[in-house]
């Protein structure tokens, strides 16, 4: 599903250069559940942004689902993100003015899917994550754990082959965090490919494999 080789990412501010990633190699097989762990500033979030085609590396190679995505235009990358990747973020990134049903169906709206179809699919996903009775609620009327469930439903609605989750339990209490991890494990058991970014060893240990990153380098857990 993911094959990254020799990935380098350098940020420049005037004459100052910061190498966030330094020759990273990462592979994730289809159907794997992988946790990428590292301290703040280790490069793990930068790595996720590159995996999610939200940014481009300074150097290196990246194949996603068999496609050389670094050869894609920005418009082509937008299509890749919409069809192949579901994102779950620490801050949920829900639209506060819209109800949960609309928030979940947004990726399908961008794809031009008929609204009757998109709303039916969104409703099915909200039922799946246990929020069938909250479809007309806005994000501000939900708990943090419920908002994250909405975000997971949104990530799944277009049926992407890959789910990327960046600190998905970081803003949640212990009980809600446990519920979200149980949901992720259920998604993995159903055949989804999951990559989870975390700084929490307890969260990371619930994945099938842990990749550890430090100072922009993978120091443990990778294999090619």
TrEMBL record:
Name of the protein described by the UniProt record: Peptide ABC transporter ATP-binding protein
Example of a GO cellular component annotation carried by this entry: membrane protein complex
SUPFAM superfamilies in UniProt: P-loop containing nucleoside triphosphate hydrolases
Domain ABC transporter: 2-224
Entry-linked InterPro entries: AAA+_ATPase, ABC_transporter-like_ATP-bd, ABC_transporter-like_CS, ABC_transpr_LolD-like, MacB-like_ATP-bd, P-loop_NTPase
Native source organism of the sequence: Desulforamulus profundi
UniProt keywords, alphabetically: ATP-binding, Nucleotide-binding, Transport
GO molecular function terms noted in the UniProt entry: ATP binding; ATP hydrolysis activity; transmembrane transporter activity
């Amino acid at each position: 599903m993911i094959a990254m080789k020799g990935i380098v990412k350098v940020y420049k501010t005037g004459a100052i250069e910061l190498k966030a990633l330094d020759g990273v190699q990462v592979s994730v097989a289809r159907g794997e559940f992988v946790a990428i762990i590292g301290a703040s500033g280790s490069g793990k979030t930068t790595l996720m942004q590159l995996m999610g085609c939200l940014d481009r590396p300074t150097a290196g190679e990246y194949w996603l689902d068999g496609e050389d995505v670094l050869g894609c235009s920005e418009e082509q990358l937008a299509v890749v993100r919409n069809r192949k990747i579901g994102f779950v973020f620490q801050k949920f990134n829900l639209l506060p003015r819209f109800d949960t049903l609309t928030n979940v169906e947004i990726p399908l709206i961008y794809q031009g899917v008929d609204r009757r179809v998109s709303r039916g699919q969104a409703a099915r996903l909200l039922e799946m994550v246990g929020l069938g009775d909250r479809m007309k609620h806005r994000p501000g009327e939900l708990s943090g754990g419920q908002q994250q469930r909405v975000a997971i439903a949104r990530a799944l609605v277009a049926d992407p082959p890959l789910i990327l989750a960046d600190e998905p339990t970081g803003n949640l209490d212990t009980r809600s965090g446990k519920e979200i991890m149980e949901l992720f494990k259920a998604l993995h058991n159903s055949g989804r490919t999951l990559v989870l970014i975390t700084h929490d060893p307890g969260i990371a240990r619930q994945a099938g494999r842990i990749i550890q990153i430090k100072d922009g380098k993978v120091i443990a857990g990778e294999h090619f």
